[in-house]
């Protein structure tokens, strides 16, 4: 059965617009109807097409997750040691992703169960809802990813400005049930002094949306985290 995604009709973006404008960020629980959320969650957990993504300075890399797991333990340890060292004083990230928009553009994995997400986030119901919420009628399209953070994964502070893209806002549909706050993985927002202004807990079927630019990070997942942190995300652009 093909994913049939739609926004919960109980949410009125015009009523939420004032809250979003006040803080430049918003959480919307129960964003999808329950049946949509359950099916999407199953597909995320069943997905085998995960790529380990990380950076070395300004260069971005992506490798099949299974290839990394097949490396000898000593080589994996060296990789992690070097990566954590770079994170100490600079921008760094490490997590698993499946870039849905990119795979479709390249003609890869046709018929993949997660590919309908691309159509959903570029449909008029979704884009129109987002235009109302953000009060940005110039939103023209969105890209989309699936992400999976496991123990030790993280994304350090950044502001989502991209030189080749005109990003208006970032959206994340958090699809992680029963999260223990002690496991980390919060979407944290910082003020100019480095204090955390807000922290969005990984949760199930919750839309997190925030304007760009805004300093934020995904805090590292503890080594004892009991499950992965899964979500769908992308950027609203013009």
UniProtKB/TrEMBL annotation:
Lineage: superkingdom: Bacteria
Domain Prolyl 3,4-dihydroxylase TPA1/OFD1 N-terminal: 146-237
Any GO molecular function: peptidyl-proline dioxygenase activity
GO BP field: regulation of translational termination
Transmembrane segments: none
InterPro entries documented for this protein: TPA1/OFD1_N, uS12_prolyl_hydroxylase
GO cellular component, one term: cytoplasm
Pfam family name, one: 2OG-FeII_Oxy_4
Alphabetical list of PANTHER family matching this protein: HISTONE ACETYLTRANSFERASE COMPLEX, PROLYL 3-HYDROXYLASE OGFOD1
Name of this chain's protein: Prolyl 3,4-dihydroxylase TPA1/OFD1 N-terminal domain-containing protein
Organism: Seongchinamella sediminis
